[in-house]
Amino acid sequence: MIDKESVLKFFSACSRPLSFKETISQMGLDRKEARRLRNILQGLVRSGELIMTRQGRYGPPEEMSLVKGYFEAHRDGYGFVIPEDPGQRDVFVPSKATLGAMEGDRVIV
Q: What are phi and psi for residue 67, nearest 5 degrees?
């Protein structure tokens, strides 16, 4: 039975982001499991554990050079993303690119 952990493990071993159909094919899933996979992927994207690109491909944020962290706003409108991973550097976010993020929001940049 397919579960969240097996999906995360699968994507961490992939060399590139995959579409839904590619994922089904490479995991060898039947129709019932494919429906379950769709629900799992939606949950993983909502939680930030996977990213869905504009092209509809899925992959871990670390493999896409993205940073997960918390937004720190400055009174002049700009802010910084403080990474969850202490080994990564803070990311400057200009005021035009904050997209309404508020102090403490969990973001991916």
A: -120, 125
